[in-house]
């Protein structure tokens, strides 16, 4: 069936305005065409690799990161900072290697959703420079959150 005829079908009646029925087919990646491209692999390595690097940096500087989380009012930073950093590391590596990619990407999304509003609460800052820096970090993490959701969606389609 031609793509145009799958997307629309029109009423044959001349008396009534034509009705348009749209069918949205769920795209698939059964042949791996998207996930097997060099551009997609590069995107995976950049996205997951940077996040894995940040997680390793967090683990190397754990006391400093715990102190900052404590300062920001994060709950139980002695436990949550190491756990979240390990989760981010596993998520980043999962995306890079494309192993359990949906779970890895959703883990990254969960990390970002949980930490971003607590750690980058620009709306609570009085100093304009601090406010701007926190807003930049908040927006960066929001973009990364969107990318994680996109990777999760692609991973689910490429099963």
From TrEMBL:
Its predominant location is membrane
Where is the region Disordered? 1-32
Record localization: Membrane
The UniProt entry, under Pfam families, shows: DoxX (PF07681)
- How does the record classify its membrane topology? Multi-pass membrane protein
Q: Which InterPro entries match?
A: DoxX
- Asked whether the keyword NAD is assigned, the reply is no
Name under which the protein is recorded = DoxX family protein
């Amino acid at each position: 069936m031609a793509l145009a005829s799958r997307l629309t079908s029109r009423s044959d009646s001349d008396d009534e305005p034509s009705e348009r029925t749209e069918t949205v087919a769920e795209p698939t990646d059964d042949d791996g065409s998207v996930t097997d491209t060099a551009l997609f692999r590069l995107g995976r390595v950049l996205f997951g690799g940077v996040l894995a690097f940040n997680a390793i940096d967090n683990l190397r500087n754990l006391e400093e990161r715990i102190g900052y989380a404590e300062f920001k009012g994060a709950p139980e930073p002695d436990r949550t900072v190491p756990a979240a950093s390990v989760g981010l590391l596993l998520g980043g590596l999962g995306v890079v290697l494309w192993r359990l990619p949906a779970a890895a990407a959703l883990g990254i999304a969960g990390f970002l959703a949980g930490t971003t509003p607590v750690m980058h609460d620009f709306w609570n800052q009085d100093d304009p420079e601090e406010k701007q820096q926190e807003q930049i970090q908040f927006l960066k993490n929001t973009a990364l959150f969107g990318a994680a959701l996109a990777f999760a969606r692609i991973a689910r389609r490429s099963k």
